[in-house]
Amino acid sequence: MTAPTADDTAVDDTDDADDTGILVDTGLPDTVAPRGVLDHADCDGLWGWTIDDDAPDRALSVRATFDTGATVSATADQPRPDVCGGDPCFHGFDLTIPTELEDGASHTLLVEALDPATGLGTVIGTGTIRCGESATTEPMVRLYESGASYVEYQSIPDVFEKMESGGRDTARRMMPIDLHTWSIANFDRDLLMFSEFALTDSASRTLFRYHDEEGAVHVTLAENSRETDRGNNHQAAYSDFRIVEGTYTVTYTLLAGSTGHPSLMLWQQRDGNRFVVLVGNSPTGAEQSSVEAADGYLVAFGETVSRSFTVSFLDEDNALFKSNANGFESP
Predict the structure, then answer these.
(1) Partner of 296 for a Cys bridge, out of 40, 61, 193, 265, CB 3.0 to 4.6 A?
(2) Could you tell me the domains of the chain?
(3) Is the sign of the CA dihedral 215, 230, 278, 76 positive or negative?
(4) Gap between the terminal Cα atoms of the chain
(5) Short-list 94, 99, 103, CA closest to 74
(6) Number of helical (H) and strand (E) elements in the chain, helices listed first
(7) Which DSSP symbol is given to 227?
(8) Shortest CA distance to 302 belongs to which of 234, 233, 252?
(9) What is the reported pLDDT for 50?
(10) What is the rounded distance in angstroms from the CA atom of residue 188 to the CA atom of residue 66?
């Protein structure tokens, strides 16, 4: 079975009929069809916006149909101020991908907005998704490579992208995330750390990986002598990305031969320089005034740590996620 085409589902403005084809009298005007945009279609969900100019204050019903015959529905009643020029505007929708489609195969989909006057669907977007452990991705992009050490990422449109400029993306609900990883225990280099840090999404795709078998990658990445002397690899060219809301997992391994312990943490920075620790030592989810070494999880020698966290699209002041693997301790 294939998803229906736009011709199959277009609104007939001359009749008042529900989706069974039975004529109804809703009392609503029917001069134009609903309009809208499917902003995002991937394994973490479908979202966008829709509005009917005949009834601009009404939240429309939205339906997604997949090539398997599965359907999901929702009401487009989420905030989308960008649609209404900054005014209060509740026409956003969010649809969940059925679990039966997480089979590693490609599936086509079609999203319709239902006309409140007729109940008939107007197509506002189509797409193809491929979800599940057997789903493949494009080759990783190498940002840095030296011997067996490297920094790489997977560019997935509307899910995880390199951020060259700017911050949040309102239309696609993407947030900045700063992946800040260090690989040396102290500036004297008598404590070295060999490690791997990876970020994966809910479809088991690896989005970012930092692998160091030299114990010095962060010094190598420093862009000038002052930063090299300080032992700092915090450079936008290697660490700044944009990520869509959803559930993610960070996995950290302290490799053999390390002589220092890393303190692993990830937090969200909010308005007024307030912080919420998402991954670390017993995160509570509550705001706090600072992030301290005690907030991090001290990784043991040879240990692999895996922790999940959720990215939620909030307002403009709540726009930064930051991940650290530093704050090293003595053996």
Answers:
(1) 265
(2) 6-130 (2.60.40.10), 141-329 (no CATH)
(3) negative
(4) 60
(5) 94
(6) 4, 21
(7) H
(8) 252
(9) 96
(10) 58
Asked if 201 and 177 count as a contact pair (C-beta separation under 8 A), the reply is no
- Smallest CA-to-CA distance from 306 within 218, 238, 235, 206 is with 206
pTM attached to this predicted model: 0.64
Radius of gyration for the chain, computed over Cα atoms and rounded to the nearest angstrom = 24
**Up-side HSE of residue 242: CA atoms within 13 Å toward CB?**
20
Each residue's pLDDT tens digit, 295-322: 888 888 888 999 998 888 765 555 566 6
Tell me the residue ranges of DSSP E strands in 160-282: 160-162, 174-181, 195-201, 206-212, 240-244, 246-254, 261-270, 274-279
Structure tokens at 73: 């529905």
- Report the alpha-carbon angle 43-317-289, nearest 5: 105
Beta bridge partners of 75: 61
Q: What share of the chain is helix, strand, coil (3-state, %, to 5)?
A: 10, 45, 50
The pLDDT tens digits of the residues spanning 146-189 come to 888 888 999 888 889 998 777 788 888 888 888 876 555 445 55
Cα 107–chain centre separation: 21
Give SS3 for 18. Answer: coil
What's the sign of the alpha-carbon dihedral 253, 259, 260, 261?
positive
- Distance (Å, rounded) from C-alpha 294 to C-alpha 298? 9
Task: Give tens-digit pLDDT for 34-92.
Answer: 999 999 998 889 999 999 999 888 999 999 999 999 999 999 999 888 888 767 789 99
Least confident of 160-169, 186-195, 229-238, 278-287: 229-238
